[in-house]
Specification:
Helices cover 70% and strands 0% of the residues. With 83 residues, the chain is mainly α.
Length: 83
């Protein structure tokens, strides 16, 4: 289950992304902060920490964490299916 999303949204991503082309298409619909989170997770980098108290920055950080969590969940799901 997503850390920050609801379960239904996570199921949509797992149903939507099964190829690299589908992944690219999904990422094109998301903002750059979500994309950065997704790509950090794919590279196996730890999630970046936020030290900001600015509400706008926290909004972007939330998107970053959503992308990170979605990529981690998809990776885990793919490992389970292919095992």
């Amino acid at each position: 289950m997503h850390i920050l999303n609801n379960k239904a949204k996570g199921a949509d991503i797992m149903d939507t992304v099964t190829t690299k082309a589908q992944r690219d298409t999904l990422l094109r619909t998301k903002n750059r902060f979500y994309q950065c989170g997704w790509l950090d997770a794919e590279r196996g980098e730890p999630a970046q920490a936020s030290t900001s108290t600015d509400l706008q920055t926290e909004f972007y950080y939330h998107d970053y964490l959503l992308g990170y969590a979605d990529a981690c969940e998809l990776s885990y799901w793919q490992e389970e299916v292919m095992a």
